[in-house]
Amino acid sequence: MKRPITKEELPILSGELALAINIIINSFAVVLMLYSGAGISAISSVPFAFSEVLPHLSLGTWTYLFQGLLVLILMFLQKRFVPQYLFSFVVGFLFGQLVDVHELWIHILPQTMFCRILYFIISYLLLSVGIALSNRCGLPIVPTDLFPREVSQISGIHYPRIKISFDVLCLVATACMTKLFLGHLDGLGIGTVLAALTIGKMVGIIGSWLDKHLVNAP
To answer: What is the pTM of this model?
Structure first.
């Protein structure tokens, strides 16, 4: 019978590594989910809507502008200036730049029906893992990940409920913008809705697994 592994024996995951993994895989996952044809992820749906309505700025640029707005809202909710939130915006800027980089090469991937289904599954799992890692890195994180976590702490409401509500609000805003200005819904698909309604729960499941198998060392 195997001896249970103690916390001191678990592998250590540094905060810097967790944050780097989050930025790299989530920026890729956002673009991959859109490329799958199932719809863009909820956290990037609002910047996507702006990039379609006002295309003179790229998706990456609208991404960190939207993230800047989230930072301002958090400071308003906290009723004070929070320096750490500004560092989060810098992380969001890097995230937005990587989104634009991935958009440059993503078109080389094949788009068969099987591949598109596979792309959605991969992007969904990558987003869930990335968000779970960012919530545990102990460092300034991408504002779209920071926002639901901080609102959960401020309000005392469980994270999955806040995350799902935030994602649904993003989808509603995207639907209204694209319908009003473009005359049709754009960027939203069955995958977008599925991810919005379930990814908060998936992040919680993956987070619990990480807590059992890794030690966070910010």
So the answer is: 0.79
| Tally of residues, the chain | 218
Reported as a single tens digit per residue, the pLDDT across 40-97 is: 888 888 999 999 999 999 988 998 899 889 999 999 998 888 888 888 888 888 888 8
Return the bridge partners of 13, or none: 216
Give whole-number Cα distances, 134 to 25, 144, 181, in Å: 11, 11, 34
Q: How confident is the model at residue 4 (pLDDT cuts 50, 70, 90)?
A: low
Residue 90: exposure state from Cβ atoms within 10 A (0-12, 13-18, ≥19) = exposed
Distance, CA of 50 to CA of 62 (rounded, Å) = 7
